[in-house]
């Protein structure tokens, strides 16, 4: 599989998504200004797919970085594929377009390349991003996700966004949209946790059967944010099998983990605020894993999730109760 740094997948609406993306989420110890500088570094290195979200709280700074790299001639706007996300307090149809317009305003962009429903779990609509009751329990809401999707379709028709998709959806939730009456646009992607310990084979095959791209986050394990991640879980990049295969190609464990996903047809979102690692993670286009290597890595699957977000678990649309 010959791949180049500008390799992309063609989405079911005809738009092109680069096969490796730069993720801009980071734990609280990192500042928004660091997100801006890291995004500039990533664009300089060659990343053209930038993944962000309203809830990350740094779209203003990420927008600054993109516009700075356009202004200095490094890229043109059409070279950048920007992904934004609809947060869980904005599922009500009348709140969808205002949420997208807020992201556009913060970014300083005229359109977003891809806007995805961040999670099928909905919270009480309002200004609180994590609304809780007097006992500290999340206040949920339950808009029909098909109505949210119709509002996204209207945003696409209005030219505010080029492609629309979902994130953290299981098969049943995808099918609900796919089988919706008067469906105008299929989701172009489903962005989910995907790595060597959770390889999502069944969900990947289902998505491929529907011409939906599976986009993987936490492909290098996780940022190990102690708000979400069990600190006793294994550190993916310390896996001896990745290290051993890496020696064979003179590559890092991260390179192997990323290349594995790309060869399976998964678009890989990588995250780091370290300039050296941002550069290292991009060096996945000058080698190819063998069929045998791919099978060995397939065998590392443990169905282990780093991100199961227990505060969502009581919602009827919590996606992780099903196998896939």
Domain module tally = 1
Please, what is the average pLDDT?
95
Per DSSP, what share of the residues sits in E-state strands of 2 or more residues?
15-25%
Shape: globular
Q: In terms of per-residue confidence, which ranges show pLDDT below 50 for 5 or more consecutive residues?
A: none
The sequence of SSEs as H and E is EEEHEHEHEEEHEHEHEHHEHH
Provide the CATH architecture. Alpha-Beta Barrel
Q: Give me the number of helical elements.
A: 10
CA distance, first residue to last residue: 28 Å
Structural class, please? alpha/beta
In what order do the strands lie side by side in the largest sheet?
3-4-5-6-9-10-11-12
**How many extended strands?**
12
CATH homologous superfamily descriptor: NADP-dependent oxidoreductase domain
Radius of gyration: 19 Å
Largest sheet: 8 strands, parallel, barrel
CATH fold node name: TIM Barrel
CATH domain class name: Alpha Beta
Explain what this protein looks like in three dimensions.
This protein has 324 residues and is of the alpha/beta class. It has ten helices and twelve strands. The strands form three sheets. It has an eight-stranded parallel beta barrel with strand order 3-4-5-6-9-10-11-12, surrounded by four helices. A two-stranded antiparallel ribbon has the order 1-2. 41% of the residues are buried. Belongs to the aldo/keto reductase family. Residues 20-301 form the NADP-dependent oxidoreductase domain. The active site is at residue 56. The record marks 85 as: Lowers pKa of active site Tyr.
